[in-house]
Sequence to fold (348 residues):
Amino acid sequence: MSALAQRIIEAIRINGPMPVSLYMLMCLHDPGDGYYATRPGFNHDFTTAPETSQVFGELLGLWVAHEWMRLGSPPKFWLVELGPGRGAMMADMLRAAGSVKGFNDAVQVALVEASPALRKQQNAILARHEIHHFDELGSVPPGPSIIIANEFLDCLAIRQFVREGNGWRERQVGLDRDGHLVFGAGPPADLPADVIPVGDHVEVAPALETLIGSLAARFRQHPGHALLIDYGPDDRSPDDTLRAYSAGTQIHPLAQPGLSDLTADVDFPRLRKISESEGLAVHGPIQQRYFLTRLGAKERAEALIRANPQRADEIRRGVEELVSPNHMGARFKCVALTPYGVNAPPGF
Fold:
């Protein structure tokens, strides 16, 4: 049993069952024993698009450069990445965008990252660049900005609700008779008004409203655009999607607290509602395969193959993972957020 599991069990014994959102927060972000604080598992417990192919980050880098020019090529701007992982995507983005005249002199890199373990990896991979770490988006200094988040929203802590008769109860984590962690239903609870349930289960990420509010507040004062890439349904709220991964295998979410990654689908309809209520224009969501193909994924792959013929199979496999509907191409969705009146960015 992990140290965090022991602490969670003790907390439940003393205080009673805890909501799924608190369990998820502790598992991922506990400063002493949380997953991201102690054992970031990129290319071990899970694999992200930037780790699959350099083409992903390169295309996003050129997208950023284009949006910087659409902002009027300000002499200084913040390129902000939320949840930057090891820093591989940012490295690819900066390499590609650096080919655009004036970009390198203008860009200021802000990484919103709370994990000390990941900050250490980011410092190593991005050693050639000046980077600035922040604990939250609101701490990034004022100024024009382009904000990127790939597989960040799926890690936001969720509340889960279960229908009972004509009402709802919030799902909780408690203990069975043998003292093992188990899911159960708490007292009656009201669903947030902006949730669209379909069946008998629904999930809500409270922090989504906070994040979009921070984006909107920033864009009201300074020019800026955002690009969010993640997975989840685009026509309804997620139902029961909390999952855990260890060594590439899906396991029970209560099996290894702090030792496995936890993730849940993103509620794109709710994201749209919140964004529009904050005065933002929402472009998308569209499937990742369409977004990357429109940006030139296949053409970039062929150019890489011509320059590196010995890596042809590897390059083709990586891009196929990104755009194939049988892999990441259909499951992942892309959304751009801009002030109202701004034309759709490239790819949308």
Observations:
- The CA atoms of residues 158 and 219 lie 26 Å apart.
- The longest strand covers residues 167-175.
